[in-house]
Design brief:
Elements (H helix, E strand, L loop, with lengths): L2 E6 L4 H16 L7 E7 L5 H12 L10 H8 L2 E5 L5 H12 L5 E6 L6 H10 L7 E5 L7 H12 L7 E3 L7 H11 L13 E9 L8 H5 L2 H19 L8 H14 L5 H7 E7 L1 E3 L2 E3 L17 E6 L11 E6 L6 E8 L15 E7 L3 E9 L8 E9 H4 L7 H11 L8 H19 L6 E4 L6 H8 L10
Parallel strand pairs: 1-2, 1-4, 2-3, 4-5, 5-6, 7-12, 8-17
Antiparallel strand pairs: 7-13, 8-11, 9-10, 11-12, 13-14, 14-15, 15-16
Helix pairs in contact: 1-13, 5-6, 6-14, 9-10, 9-14, 10-14
Length: 481
């Protein structure tokens, strides 16, 4: 199958840090279909050769094991082309169409690795020159909008040019191998399904924690914040996958229909429940791995009076038969104690204890990063002859060790899926808009609240109020147990 993959924003950070390295890994693994061309478009005046040399220099910053040798890059680089484009000039889109039509590949993938405010104009220009025919797919990088209204505006513009089946809204968390295994865990095994409900589960916790601060992205991040950057997309997508009903098939729309039902069943926020069930924070100076780090307000290009949140913890419920009354806790933040992304399913304790001791009830930990695997925490006897006390033990599965072959990275998987036309791991417009609809009351409540985010020290697990949020229900975060 021949394909043309076009990166709008071909000299941007996303393209050279994430997308090109992911494509190279697909090429190295023999997964990239033969007969492909990769075209980078940007405003810089470059030739194919100069762009390849520029990209080769950028690849030197890629992790050692993933860095191409000179021989590998020469072969991979032969697929790469460059075209100068001013995205405001209609004639440049016609030139792009002529370049693509001259070859007439089986599939054309247009990846908008640009600022979201350009999406509407780019799609309209693509439609004007006819670059929306059946062979074309458009990939939209997050964040898709700043609020519900802007997300709807982008989706209207996309739907005015492309069919929904041609639109691939990307959330790179959905490409992580461990996230893909959520489906296999739940719907490929009989073990957990009878327990996957309110009668057996006490609470579910989703944590997306980073040690890094905002770095040089202060200007962008200050207009975004943790709620928009992580909760509205990544965390909610994970919640839908952990809570959805079994789909009728592995078809993309069957899966996305069930995810949408979860989003529509989330308990809506009011101004009062935001004050009670949502904690926002902002990191101050502290220590990460023994090194002093600045606070958010001291970061480059961050306004000194900023009230942007770098931490969010919230409590919600799903108003349906399976999950009624079960609290779901979502948490994300920068400059936290660990880099950790995981889902913790805490089961209810046994109804009647006959053993002394026992510790915490059973729990299932689904590890997303930096490790990738499953940990089932049980209780057992040591067999030391010191009575019948129970002690915690773990069944720990490391996916990287269990599967000896090279595992496909998130962007690698999603780029290959876009080329192949597989929509399963991409977000549909009604999912995305419903997520914004649920988040928007939090944003509105914060706008009306002059108190701003709570401070927390870099290297901690966030404001103390986040622990109190969970403790109010008689529970605690995983690291506190």
């Amino acid at each position: 199958m021949s394909f043309d993959l076009v990166f709008f924003g071909g000299t941007g950070d996303l393209t050279w840090r994430k997308l090109m390295p992911a494509l190279f890994q697909a090429f190295r693994h023999g997964k990239l279909p033969e007969g492909g061309r990769i075209l980078a478009v940007a405003r810089d005046d470059q030739t194919d050769e100069r762009y390849r040399e520029w990209l080769k220099e950028r690849f030197r910053e890629v992790d050692g094991a993933k860095r191409p040798t000179d021989e590998e890059f020469e072969k991979f680089g032969s697929l790469i082309h460059y075209r100068r484009m001013d995205l405001s000039q209609p004639e440049h889109y016609q030139g792009l169409k002529d370049w693509l039509d001259a070859r007439n590949a089986d599939t054309v993938v247009l990846y908008l690795a640009t600022s979201p405010h350009l999406f509407t104009g780019i799609c309209q220009q693509l439609g004007a020159v006819g670059l929306n025919h059946g062979k074309v797919r458009v990939v939209l990088e997050k964040p898709l909008g700043h609020d519900l209204a802007s997300a709807q505006e982008i989706n209207r513009a996309v739907r005015g040019v492309f069919a929904e089946s041609q639109a691939f809204r990307i959330d790179h968390y959905l490409g992580k191998p461990s996230v893909q295994n959520l489906m296999a865990l739940r719907f490929g095994n009989a073990l957990f399904e009878p327990l996957w409900r309110r009668e057996s589960i006490a609470n579910i916790q989703i944590t997306l924690a980073e040690r890094l601060g905002v770095g040089t992205r202060g200007a962008f991040y200050d207009g975004t914040g943790a709620l928009r950057d992580m909760i509205q997309n990544h965390a909610l997508q994970l919640l839908t996958m952990i809570a959805m009903e079994p789909p009728s098939s592995n078809d993309a729309d069957a899966i996305r229909d069930e995810k949408l039902k979860v989003l529509r069943s989330l308990k809506p926020f009011t101004a009062e429940s935001v004050a009670r069930d949502v904690v926002r924070g902002q990191y101050r100076a502290g220590s990460i791995e023994g090194k002093a780090v600045p606070g958010y307000l001291e970061e480059v290009k961050v306004p000194p009076e900023s009230q942007c949140e770098t931490f969010v913890a919230l409590r919600t419920e799903i108003n349906n038969w399976r999950w009624a009354g079960v609290p779901f806790y979502l948490r994300t933040g920068k400059r936290l104690a660990e880099r950790d992304a995981q889902i913790v399913v805490n089961f209810r304790p046994v109804p009647h204890k006959i053993f002394a001791g026992g510790g915490q009830p059973n729990r299932l930990v689904i590890k997303l990063q930096p490790e990738d695997g499953l940990e089932l925490q049980l209780l057992a006897q040591k067999g030391t002859g010191q009575g019948e006390q129970l002690t915690p033990v773990s069944l720990d599965l490391d996916f990287d060790k269990a599967f000896a072959t090279q595992r496909v990275g998130a962007y690698e998987r999603l780029l290959l899926d876009a080329i192949a036309g597989r929509l399963n791991l991409f977000v549909r417009s009604d999912e995305q808009e419903q997520a914004w609809r649920w988040v928007e009351p939090i944003l509105n409540a914060w706008t009306a609240d002059a108190s701003g985010p709570r401070p927390y020290s870099a290297g901690s697990w966030g404001p103390a109020a986040a622990s109190a949020l969970v403790a109010r229900d008689g529970f605690s975060w995983a690291e506190e147990q």
